[in-house]
Input
Amino acid sequence: MTVSLAEYIERNAAVYPSHVAVICEGRETDWARMLVRCRAIAGGLNHLGLVKGDRIAFLGLNSDWFFECYYAPSFAGIELVALNYRLSAREMVECLVDSQAKVLLVDAHFLDLARVAVARCDAPVQLVLVGAQETGPVEIGPGEIGPGEIGPGEIGPDEIGYEALIAQGHAPSTEKGAGDDTLIIFYTGGTTGRAKGVMLSHWNIFANSMGAAPHYGYIKHERHLIIGPMFHTAAGSRIYSCALMPGEAVVQPKFTVEGFLSLTQTHRISSTQFVPAMMQAVLEHPDFTKYDLSSLRQMTWGASSTSEALLHRIVKAFPHVDLVHGYGATEAAPVITGLGPAYHRADFAERGKLGSVGYPAMHVDVRIFDEQDREVRRGEIGEIVVRGPNVMKGYLNMPDATAEALRGGWYHTGDAGYQDADGCLWISGRLKDMIISGGENIYPAEVEDVLSRHPDVAEVAVIGIPSTQWGEAVHAIVIRAEGAIPSEQDLIAFARKQLAGYKCPKTVEFRTQPFPLSGANKVLKTELRAPYWDPRRGVDP
Amino acid sequence: MTVSLAEYIERNAAVYPSHVAVICEGRETDWARMLVRCRAIAGGLNHLGLVKGDRIAFLGLNSDWFFECYYAPSFAGIELVALNYRLSAREMVECLVDSQAKVLLVDAHFLDLARVAVARCDAPVQLVLVGAQETGPVEIGPGEIGPGEIGPGEIGPDEIGYEALIAQGHAPSTEKGAGDDTLIIFYTGGTTGRAKGVMLSHWNIFANSMGAAPHYGYIKHERHLIIGPMFHTAAGSRIYSCALMPGEAVVQPKFTVEGFLSLTQTHRISSTQFVPAMMQAVLEHPDFTKYDLSSLRQMTWGASSTSEALLHRIVKAFPHVDLVHGYGATEAAPVITGLGPAYHRADFAERGKLGSVGYPAMHVDVRIFDEQDREVRRGEIGEIVVRGPNVMKGYLNMPDATAEALRGGWYHTGDAGYQDADGCLWISGRLKDMIISGGENIYPAEVEDVLSRHPDVAEVAVIGIPSTQWGEAVHAIVIRAEGAIPSEQDLIAFARKQLAGYKCPKTVEFRTQPFPLSGANKVLKTELRAPYWDPRRGVDP
Output
């Protein structure tokens, strides 16, 4: 037999019908209700003409609706595209066109953006407006919308209400997705300026959820707080784990410190995940000590490196919490390695592993390769490569990029690192010059492409520089066009029109000397980055 | 990407080269050595002419060699048949012929049996004699045998030494097994008198190992003691888990109480599994309290029901050990459900789940079906059915039996049971009349078939009756042939010539009245069993 996500929802509805599946903004869905709604969503999509292998996209803040859409399409073998809401309309269109999504589900926050994007797509994209406020099942006829949903005045003639679609109660008419079928697609920034759709199968997601569970120390029926954006695989994979364990999810629409504190206290949250900047904000909140956070037993952090001082503060603030530092990649669904709780205890300095990303997860093989894809000797720095049943099927519509990324049966992460004498993995930097800022992957080529179109820019190089808040910040180094005097603000504003905010330079530096070039006439980013980075952190930077 | 067992051995050799893989009788193999030997075994099999999809069989007590043969064939996509050494020569031939095994690896204990069985096979089966005593790598030329191996005088002209095969150092020349490829075949007793080969794929084994890990509470790098016979999936699946976690295995050739106690103490064992009869013997051993068993942190028990009195004794004897009661089936690779440590604590009576087999493992869906394969209402008794990525590919060469067992996408266990209000599973008995004695599955039809061939037997019915030592004991009820007066001993001796000892009746009862029959003229076993069983235990018995 094979694996199908939908079957775990069916199992949970049968075995644990009244256990919580998801809680969001006062709405609570148990597994029995989750199954009914998932089947109706899948059946509704079939009714709209979608068949197995077709795709839908979701654009919205975190919500129980987004949560449902993680599970529902698999009941009809339909694939979900989780859209990053920080993208510009241009980038959104790129993802919709590339994925050929036939339906775009959008919540009230991004309705304008969605309408603009859909209008720019050549192929028709059906808009489904998500946003009911009710907690119980709704009785609505076909074509009507649910109470509290985006109001009747606001819904366009060709648009559909999400609750109305569900209320039709169609049964799915196409087969469930399973095995190597694609379950979800996440877009990551592209090195050539075009986003790449990472296709993850049911097997990929199953392997990650099963492998992450013992590695991260999840237990059955615990309460997970989802605070990271669900359009990323870090939070997304946790949603799938909640189906398998099963677990109970509490979803915060968008991270705020107050929300984190009060949800944790109210719902007796036991497990969550964060990036260091979020936890720093939590610790610095004046009311931090006023909340009862004693229910927390496990927290996973990742996505960027952390100062040892901050980690000391976190350990001290949560002495009874099992901390795990995870390292992953969207292409690996995402867990690759983890540094477990023992290394985060108060005596961690003695263990000497703090700052590393730990050991391979159960299901993952990790090695370090040189430029010719040969394994290096233990302790030497090279590219971190990964293989295992969690590694993606490939990039959508990009056979060449897929073959390149998966050459020799290993996923090439583009991260540089080494394994120490114990096999523990340390990240040294990145081979590719991708920037990670606030947990988002940013490819300089994409930003450079936009800035270079500004008439006052002759040449531009974009790099990441250290940021206490974001891990890295996007920094542009510009050689002005002859006679032109653009300001930093001009260029940032110009970028903002074309790019998601997080991709825009935080700072611009003007330079008169030519860029340092390699033998192949490529800009030597290493040299540009060098003045900003502490050489003790590793080779690059 | 897909999954391949061989890649986890490669991972362990690369990341944890000097960690223990297996220890047996003073021989210790680390992961670096394990990889070298596995590759040489696979390469040796290729050299003997085997290619991907071919099969080898192993016949022997538990050992590090058997352990290697769990991993090695996957390096060349070759499949392992794990033979039950309790089988008779006739049964052994049946399995060899059915599986078309091209090589039979045999240790010194079963050499005579293996030679007899191989001589009776029509197709040639290459015998490989396993049994080196050395601990380090051996330098032997082609055709020679290793020191301490089955002696030169004993090796036949067409036979090969295992260490000699390894010493040739051939590299595997066929592709690794992966994904849906069969990894291992376990034979289970057949309802029609013929053993069924359960084919488990790489995905099946992966799903079970990953799902069992959090469910059973295994942790990385712990010491597992393998005491159950490795030709069963219960111990066998643990061997695969040791590759994935990874873990360190200590192998006891055959269970003895003294061995269990001294190995646990010497090797600081942290995790093991047992059937209740084994643990009863341990607790009753006069030196039990003299051993230091404080390293034990987790024990899994299963395979037969246990008296509450015995369970109380176990809980009291191991107050700090996490006890898990597992329920499984060879066809499910094997884990289906488990009752966790919390329910086994000293206060377990209050929790009211003791005697159940607990909740579905993460990766498994479990339901109760009626005779028409419709799900019954919660609390009603029916057949326990299972689906998930752990469920077998099917029975080898038996498409009809496979289709019947997996009908509707569910594996039909033949066990009767119900789910209580919390979804917790209780076993009521068996729909099929299979007997489980000392952890072995025995199909009465097979025993009846043999006994009915005795000239003094007119009719025979075989049932399981309660046994403190074995859970159930095989009991034959015989209607003598006209004028014949066979003795109980005659019939048992007759059965012993044809059947594995554990399948032979322990007792024979003579009956003069005809057997009670159903409307379809089938013997009503339920009525025959009734006088032996406590009706409070459930419907059947």
